[in-house]
Structures are given as structure tokens and as C-alpha cells.
Structure prediction request, 335 residues.
Amino acid sequence: MKRNGVCEDVDVTALGELLIDFAPVSTDKDGFPTMAAKPGGAPANYLATLARYGAKTALLAKVGADAFGSMLVRTLQEAGIETTGIVKDASVFTTLAFVTLDKNGERSFSFARKPGADTCLRYEELDLSLIDNSKIFHFGTLSLTDEPARETTMKALAYAKAAGKLITFDPNLRASLWSDLEEARKWILWGLKQADIVKIGDEEAEFLWECGEQEAAARLLDEYDIKLVMVTCGPKGAYIQNNTTSAFAVCPPVTRVDTTGAGDVFGGAAVSRILKTGKAPEELAHEELKKIVTFAVTAASLSTRIPGGIPGIPCEQEVVDTIKRLSDTVSDNLR
Prediction:
């Protein structure tokens, strides 16, 4: 965080998209949705979750010098995220994403991004002091789809690695944003080679290797020298593994309204627990991994009860209470 213009210690600095998600709230008789604007972007959701659970966070991003851009910056400030690394550009509009949901709350995306502000972030606009003073640097794939954001991401990542930062990566696939899926595959695989911790969805694992969560985790650990892998499996739960042990946790039963941002909430919640251990990810034991993945799937599941990513993040005490209640229920059933 910055005080008097000087950057203080930050746990996690992320680079990537900050945008407006238009989430459906109703549908008319012809099937057209009425939508509500919600703050979004995977890195923003991820950082907001970390901040909610006690971490210090900062975002490097670009928005338009427009009403939506100002709203997003204000929302992140209210969420406790350092926003001095967010650039406002009058020459482009803040990126918009239109979310449609199926009957199970699963979402698909349509983007107004030709270009959107997030793709126009240039390396010389970055406040590198935020990376200098961070423990972790985080990035995803949406900043790799277009220039100049792609080159900016690559240079910022190289800068963070040279400074010895822990690298976390979320290869979230948004097929409509790529010129072709082979290009998407190329850059996702490139990102995997850079990371120490990866949070990947079962859909991305299927896209890359046509395999399940355990095989995907084994491949990432063996072939990419990743220290810790987390594979989310939608409503089924999530699997976490390092080179010595693994753990799985199921999702608690909830009434899902909107899954937008749930994977980001999972990632932020998991990394918040990793930070609290004070250990390197490869040193975490089974019980520690079990607690991390249980907390993360519970937080992510609870977040789906409310539309939008950031608005749905549950408080830490609610997550803890839910875990305890479910644990007590299991104990009672075993008696």
C-alpha cells in the first residue's frame, strides 16, 4: 500500500482486466435478459477475496476515463485494494462483459472489447514499485489475448520473476476472446511454464489435455515444475496437490444463483490461507492442504448465492461457521 507516495509492503499484486460484468436479473417473454452492472474481472475478484480475508493487495490495470471506470476504481478502494496502479485512459472505453446463465447458474460471456481499456495497458504505465514490495505476482490469460497488454504482461512477469516473487497463474479460458483456440492453447501453456502456483478449472484441463483433475495436477507438477496445483471441479469441489501430498474437498450445498467469479473467489481464498501458513507451497503438509482447499471451496460456493463476483464474497466468519456446521453434521451422522 502507498502512504505519502511511498509503496509499503503488499502481499499480492495482480495485473489484468478490470471490467463491468452485466449480469442477468430477469428474462422477458422473448428470452432477452434484463441486466445489472456489477464490478468484475478475474484479477479484481481474486484480489477482493484476498483483501476480504486479511491480505494486502494491489492491482495493475487500465480502465476508461468514463463513469464505469470511476465506479470500478471506487469499488476496489472500498474492497481494500490499492488502486494507484490503475490507469485511466480517455481514448478507450472501460471493457464490458455480458454474462448469460443457464438453468444451473453456469455462465457464458460476450465481451465489448474491440479494443477495451484492459487490452491497452502499456508497460511504461506500470507502477513497478507495487511489484517490488509484493510477495506474490498474479496474472491470468485475458491479458495475453491482445497487444499491448500481452507484451506488458510478459515484461511485468519477467520483472517479478527476476525479483524473486512467487508467481500465481489462473489460465481461465474465454474462447470468444481468442482469434483461434490453438492460439489460446499456446499462451495458456506459456503461462503455466512461468508459474509457481496454478489454479486451473476442470474445463481448462479438458481443453488442454482431455483429462481429469488428478491427471491434470500430476502433469502440471511433473512437466511444468509447478509447486502447487489447485484444480476446481465446479459444484463437485476441488483438488489440491504439491509434490508430496494432496487433498480434495467437496462443495457445501447452496442454492446457486450466479457462478460468476466463483473460481476467482476460490483462488483468492486459497492463497489467503497459504499466506497465513507462512510456508512455501511445496512445504505444505496434507492437513494444511485439506484446510486450504476446504476453506476455498466453501468460500467459492457461498459466493454463488449472490449475483456478481465481488458482491458475493462471503465474510471469513461465515466461511468458518459453515465449515464447522457441516463438520458437526457429519460427526452427528457418524454416531
Q: What stands out?
A: The domain at 2-329 is CATH 3.40.1190.20 (UDP-N-acetylmuramoyl-L-alanine:D-glutamate ligase). Residues 199 and 230 are 5 Å apart (CA to CA). The first strand starts at residue 2 and ends at 3. Confidence is low (pLDDT under 50) at residues 330-335.
